[in-house]
């Protein structure tokens, strides 16, 4: 029975969290747009619980035009005001501005022939790092790889990309496999 599985303890029993753990967290993602969406969502999570983002994710996708960088890069003050009034999202002007700025940087990279996915994955040598953790307390909150990626993202102009946020992003998109050793989803 699925409920008797010994999952990573952080997901608890909330069905939304369990589904995220079982189907998404740690699964390698290579699509540039999807990676950018997850990076934006991790930035919105700063100071909040991830379950808050999961609960608002569909509303955020709708409000942010399915995280289409081409559309978001064109957002102006009217769009920002619209978003600030939308209860389905995290209503932080700084985080909304960060998403808009990030879309513009993403497009600039693409237009300059840089593949966002390849660039991000280069920080882990192009393949997931397979960690071995006997318990959740052994997981770090940041690593040399997340610190290097954070520094490089900031140098390009991205915001809300500190080493801890970036490490959570790396876990989420499967750049590091931080499932516990006895987790069946390792």
Account of the 3D structure:
The protein is globular and about 50 Å long. It has a two-stranded parallel ribbon. The mean pLDDT is 94. It is built from nine helices and two strands, in the order H-H-H-H-H-H-H-E-H-H-E. The chain has 186 residues and is mainly alpha-helical. The chain has helices at residues 15-23, 32-45, 50-63, 69-72, 77-84, 93-111, 116-121, 144-156, 163-172; strands spanning 129-130, 176-177. 31% of the residues are buried.
Strands ordered across the widest β-sheet: 1-2
- Shape designation: globular
Please count the beta strands (DSSP E, at least 2 residues each): 2
Mean pLDDT: 94
Number of helices: 9
Structural class: mainly alpha
Biggest beta-sheet profile: 2 strands, parallel
> Nearest-angstrom radius of gyration?
17 Å
**Whole-Å distance between the termini?**
18 Å
**Runs with pLDDT <50, length 5+?**
none
Helix-strand string: HHHHHHHEHHE
Q: What proportion strand?
A: under 5%
Keywords, separated by commas or semicolons:
single chain, 186 residues, mainly alpha, two-stranded parallel ribbon, 2 strands, 52% helix, globular
């Amino acid at each position: 029975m699925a409920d008797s599985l010994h999952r990573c303890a952080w997901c608890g029993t909330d069905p939304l969290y369990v589904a995220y753990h079982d189907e998404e967290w740690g699964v390698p993602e290579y699509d540039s747009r999807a990676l950018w969406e997850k990076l934006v969502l991790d930035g919105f999570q700063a100071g909040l619980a991830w379950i808050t983002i999961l609960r608002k994710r569909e509303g955020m996708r709708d409000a942010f035009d399915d995280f289409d960088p081409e559309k978001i890069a064109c957002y102006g003050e009217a769009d920002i005001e619209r978003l600030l009034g939308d209860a389905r999202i995290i209503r932080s002007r700084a985080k909304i501005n960060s998403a808009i700025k990030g879309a513009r940087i993403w497009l600039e990279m693409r237009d300059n022939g840089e593949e966002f996915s390849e660039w991000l994955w280069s920080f882990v040598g192009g393949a997931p790092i397979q960690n071995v953790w006997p318990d959740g307390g052994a997981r770090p909150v940041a690593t040399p790889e997340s610190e290097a990626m954070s520094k490089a993202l900031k140098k390009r102009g991205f915001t809300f990309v500190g080493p801890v946020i970036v490490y959570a992003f790396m876990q989420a998109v499967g750049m590091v496999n931080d499932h516990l050793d006895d987790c069946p989803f390792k």
